[in-house]
Design a protein that fits this description.
alpha/beta; globular; four-stranded antiparallel sheet; nine-stranded mixed sheet; 264 residues; 7 helices
């Protein structure tokens, strides 16, 4: 595991041992195949992948199984430790996406699971895009998802309780059903994990995010030397809709490449 200086610690260090149970229902295999089909339609040729904010590795494991050479990075050492236990031979780097070093020249750079929404201002998002651009080879593609306005008006404005493998998750959305474009939102997750006979450990994590309207995302991509080539809505079954609509889709997938005239 490689360390980049200046990496902050987040609530995800506490969340790391429970993250896979929390996301148990996510179909990463189906999502990955859909992303790959889409990327190949837009010119993806090679198999070198950089997965930004890779978390516990669930987002890059299906790429490994498809023969990709993977580098994963995350700002949480605890998340990377979970990823390393699943993929001991993968190169994993502790790095903040806002200060992403040049880790190689990749055919595909990904950032999934609404990780970019944790950046709370446009300067930070622009810096992340610049880091992704630095790591793209000529002709390579960047693919990332962002939560839509619908997600903040529903998921982040509601409470729910779920259970997975004996661990209980109590999600409390602190947002508003009338959230405005570009607004911030917050949710709190209380985790009750088994800790011995008739005992539970309580862990509380706070998740602060920001919505980024499409026009601002496109402008920030352009400012980072990236050209958006496609925007798709993400459906509940992880398939892609060519007509993205933030009133119908909880997530939006953006695909970009280095703009013509960018650095080689």
């Amino acid at each position: 595991m490689t360390t980049a200086a200046g990496t902050p610690v987040s609530d995800y260090d506490a969340f790391a041992p429970h993250y896979d149970a929390f996301t148990f229902g996510s179909d990463y295999e189906r999502w990955t195949q859909g992303v790959l089909d889409h990327a190949r339609a837009h010119g993806l040729r090679g198999r070198a992948l950089l997965d930004v904010a890779c978390g516990t590795g669930n987002s890059f494991l299906p790429f490994l199984r498809r023969g990709f050479e993977v580098v994963g990075c995350d700002s949480s050492a605890a998340m990377l430790a979970e990823a390393a236990s699943k993929a001991p031979h993968a190169r994993l780097v502790l790095a903040d996406m806002r200060e992403l070093p040049t880790l190689g020249a990749f055919d595909l750079v990904t950032c999934f699971d609404d990780s970019l929404n944790y950046l709370l201002d446009e300067e930070e998002l622009g810096a992340a895009f610049e880091g992704m651009a630095r790591n793209l080879r000529a002709g390579g593609l960047a693919a990332f998802d962002l939560n839509s306005l619908l997600a903040y008006r529903t998921t982040f404005a509601a409470d729910r309780v779920s259970e997975s493998d004996g661990t209980v998750f109590a999600w409390r959305g602190l947002g508003s059903a009338a959230a405005e474009p570009g607004s911030a939102a917050e949710a709190r997750i209380e985790i009750f994990a088994p800790a011995g006979e008739a005992a539970y450990e309580r862990v509380v994590t706070t998740h602060r995010q920001r919505h980024f309207p499409r026009e601002r995302v496109l402008a920030l991509l352009a400012g980072a030397g990236l050209e958006c080539v496609a925007v798709h809505g993400v459906l509940a079954d992880a398939s892609l809709d060519e007509r993205p609509d933030e009133s119908r889709h909880l997530k939006v997938l953006y695909t970009a490449t280095r703009a013509e005239g960018g650095d080689a």
